[in-house]
Every structure is written in structure tokens, then in C-alpha cells.
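Teaching assistant's notes for section 4

Start the section by putting this record on the projector. Ask students to predict, before seeing the second block, whether DUF4231 domain-containing protein will look compact or extended. Collect guesses on the board.
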Amino acid sequence: MQVQEDSLPGLYQSANKASLYAQNIYYLCLSFYLGILVIAAAVSFFVPVNTYGAVVSALLFFVTLGILIYLKTYKPDDTWYNGRAVAESVKTLSWKWMMKAEPFHEDNSSEVNFINDLKNVLKQNQSLSTILNSSEGAKEPITDMMRTIRSLSFDSRKTLYKNQRIDDQADWYSKKATFNKKRASRWFRIAVLLHSAAIIMLIFRVYDSSQSLPVAVIATAASAVLTWIQAKKHNELSSSYSLAAHEIGFIKSEWKSITERDFSDFVINTENAFSREHTQWIARKVDT
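Reveal the predicted structure now:
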């Protein structure tokens, strides 16, 4: 029995896809914007100062202006974060419901309470209503897989929760921490290389002022790399994901001793731990 994306409510699937799409659009626009700025700097250096060069430069800056207007108007980064918040909230609620954790421990009222909580999540994020997929939203909020898991014995639910929720999250955070650490190191080396190149060119020009070197192009590229590093936040993510992975490690060590009486509180505390890193990340984004 494997819990897949389509095992969760349609709201999760729709919000997750909307978030991933908006994230891709945001980084695509940002990469084009920074890349075109570097190209514009290169054109101003290598292309002769004439009508042709002026037209090309103007067109390039017109494109960058269009990208800025698009990002400001449509705000894909807001859609990305709001969609992620909805998706993670729905996933947390779904796992609590499947594991019979409070407030879904009573069978006679659990479905009503669960659906009401889903409605509240959507109500608090009404800005997403225009981009959520209607076909996925039309699906039953409680899937057959969710009902099947909820009907399992305590021991079966406990084992499934450990294998498919706790272990899955531990593996995800561990891999993401390693990935972001490597990316942070790679972009740092690129930034150092570009700054070193600019310094060497400036020193060389001191000895031979007649030489025309693309210092401005290299400086623009270095600034673009710095902006990209700040946008991706690899270092911050690596530290945050690493901390979350260690916290999940502590949770795994507690799992064996959990009894049926303690299981509801264990699930609630575990889900809070899973959402803590994401909630803090959302808050940091809002503050910027």
C-alpha cells in the first residue's frame, strides 16, 4: 500500500501543481532577466557605437523591462509560496485524518471536521482560486486510499506512518540539504572566479591603460550571479533542511515506544515538526 499524490485530496494535487508551475516560471523569468542584462552589457562593449548597437541595446532593455513588469503584475513567487502552503497544509491534515489523530479521532464526526478544515485552508488562500485546476478540485476530498488506511489496525497504521511519512520526509530533507550545499558551493566558486577575473583585468589595465577590457561585462555577470544566489538561498536552505533532517531523526527514535494512547499526540507533534521548517520559510519570504 503506497500513498501517492493522487491518494490525497484533489486540493493538494491542484495546489502542488500550481506551486511547482509558478516556481518554474519565477526562476525562468529571473534567469532570463539576469542573462539579458549580461548580454546587454556585452553588446554595449563589443558592438560598435552606432544605430545598430543602440537598437539592439534598447531591445534588450525593453525585454528586461517587460520581465520586471510581468513579475510585479502576476507575482508568480506569491503563487509559488501560497500554493506550497496550501499543499502542505492539506497533506498534514490528510495524514492526521488517516492516522486518526485529533481532531479527527472520532469516526462519527471526522469526515465533516476534515472537510471543514479543507474549506478553511482554501478560504484563507482565495488568491489561488484563479489558478487551481478545477478538474482536480472536483475530486472527492477523501479518497478511497485514505479511507482504506484509516480503517487499518493501529499497528498497521503506525508502521505505515513510519515508513511512508516519517522516513519519506527524512529522506527528502537529507537529499535537499546535500543538494543545496553542493549548489551553494558551485555558485560561490563561480562568483569568486568572476570577481577574480575583474580584479585581474583592472590590474592589467593599470599597467597598460590603452587596453580595452570587458570589466563592466564581468562585473555585471558577477552581480547577476550574486542576485541568483540570493534568490535561490542555497546556503540558508541547506542549513534549514539539515536541521529538519536531524529533528526527524529524533522523531524516528521515539517511534517504537509510542503506544496507541500516545499515537495521536505523536502524529500531531510530528506533523508540526514537518511543517515548522516550511512555515518559517514562508514567514522569511513574506518579511523580504
